[in-house]
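Q: what sequence does this backbone want?
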């Protein structure tokens, strides 16, 4: 019998109980400590992966209350960046037990009314339905474009009520949104396969331009791309925030949207979404109607950088005379273990120089809604990340996840630094545009 099916494990009780076998697979070696951002900043054992697993074990044997303030604080202070998981010699699935612990806390704590309303609005209203999400995004776009945003910022009114920093993090919304209707964009040249694009919530509104770049780069490399209808948010925010039921609902809908067509791969360009989609098999493992379908779905998910890096570029990028540095998204490097392909794609661009920053895979402090709920730790990590990135002297920061890009861009804005933060696939798209413009005079001459 697994711990998930038990009703009580020490002071864990009810649904979503962490798997005791995973908790006890930690051998307390401490190899993970140097990789943990919160340990590196606090130097506190309890704020390390080993310390947090020890706390979980204490709850599991009844020595610590589930709602003990230290337990609650540490489950919240953890970034769920999974750097510990990537280096653990015992293979402890830390993300699984952290997410279950958070779900337990959410299930049993007394949530203040205002917080309950805010969570309900975010998780049950906005992120659960893409039509509503897009309506809200249009309203946000109006707020940004009408001049109200700059007027509000000038009054510093939001600082008085403690929302100034959060408002600065709002993404600048794209001029157009990606609304998937089932259309297919045909490959250019020799066809190598047929993929589906997962469009998501924030990527399809704040970063629709990244989707356009993704489609251009994939079709240029011989892949038909379908924008599958009826897909929605991946559910990562729900799962990370202790709301797994909301995540499961979205996972079931996405499986139904994609499973009939039999694509070669489901392509994602947001590392956080990709990690969540690859873990639908675990999320729905206790659902007899969906467990096998979820595993099959997850097995076809690929980050676009992973996919193109493995498949190889069939079209040659043009030159970009630029120096860039690469910020590794945690959910690409640690959760999906994709580290070589991004660098291979960046260095495939002629004349471009990649300067590695120190601590490239240390979390930037974004981590979903972490920068809203743990602003001090988030801000300290952002400062460290930007210091590292700017120490390279690179002209642009390249990343592959919307959360990281928003966080880095907000940090650069606050420093008055106008350096761009761009998605890796946009970088490749620019290189292909350079190849095209380099080819134009030649074809004109040939005419
Ligand atoms: S590296 Fe793994 S086994 Fe060692 S302390 Fe960390 S989580 Fe436990
Ligand atoms: S997930 Fe990240 S912040 Fe949390 S314990 Fe592991 S390394 Fe530390």
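A:
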């Amino acid at each position: 019998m697994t711990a998930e099916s038990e009703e009580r494990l020490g002071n864990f009780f009810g649904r979503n109980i962490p798997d005791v076998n995973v908790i006890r697979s930690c051998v307390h070696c401490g190899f993970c400590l140097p990789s943990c951002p919160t340990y590196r900043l606090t130097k506190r054992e309890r704020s390390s992966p080993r310390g947090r697993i020890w706390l979980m074990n204490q709850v599991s044997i009844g020595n610590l209350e589930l709602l003990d303030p230290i337990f609650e604080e540490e489950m919240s202070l953890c970034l769920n960046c999974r750097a510990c998981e990537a280096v653990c010699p015992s293979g402890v699935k830390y993300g699984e037990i952290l997410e279950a612990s958070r779900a337990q806390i959410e299930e049993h704590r007394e949530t203040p009314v205002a917080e309950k309303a805010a969570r309900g609005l975010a998780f049950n209203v906005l992120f659960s339905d893409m039509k509503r999400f897009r309506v809200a995004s249009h309203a946000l776009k109006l707020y940004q474009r009408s001049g109200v945003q700059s007027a509000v910022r000038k009054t510093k009114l939001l600082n008085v009520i403690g929302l100034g920093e959060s408002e600065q993090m709002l993404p600048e919304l794209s001029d157009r949104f990606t609304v998937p209707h089932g259309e297919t964009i045909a490959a250019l040249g020799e066809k190598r396969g047929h993929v589906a694009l997962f469009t998501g919530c924030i990527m399809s509104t704040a970063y629709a331009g990244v989707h356009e770049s993704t489609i251009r780069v994939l079709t240029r490399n011989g892949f038909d791309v379908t924008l599958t209808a009826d897909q929605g948010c991946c559910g990562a925010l729900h799962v990370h925030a202790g709301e797994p039921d909301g995540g499961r609902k979205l996972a079931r809908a996405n499986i139904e949207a994609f499973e009939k067509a039999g694509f070669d791969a489901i392509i994602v360009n947001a590392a956080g979404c990709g990690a969540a989609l690859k873990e639908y098999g675990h999320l729905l493992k206790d659902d007899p109607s969906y467990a096998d379908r979820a595993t099959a779905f997850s097995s076809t998910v690929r980050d676009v950088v992973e996919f193109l890096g493995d498949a190889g570029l069939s079209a040659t990028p043009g030159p970009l005379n630029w120096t860039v540095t690469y910020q590794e998204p945690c959910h690409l490097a640690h959760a999906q273990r994709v580290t070589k392909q991004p660098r291979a794609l960046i260095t495939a661009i002629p004349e471009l120089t990649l300067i590695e920053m120190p601590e490239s895979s240390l979390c930037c402090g974004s981590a979903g809604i972490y920068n809203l709920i743990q602003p001090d730790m988030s801000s300290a990590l952002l400062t460290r990340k930007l210091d590292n990135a700017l120490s390279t002297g690179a002209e642009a920061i390249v990343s592959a996840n919307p959360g990281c890009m928003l966080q880095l861009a907000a940090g650069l804005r606050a420093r008055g630094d106008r350096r761009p933060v761009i998605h890796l696939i946009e970088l490749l798209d620019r290189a292909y545009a350079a190849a095209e413009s380099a080819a134009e005079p030649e074809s004109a001459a040939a005419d």
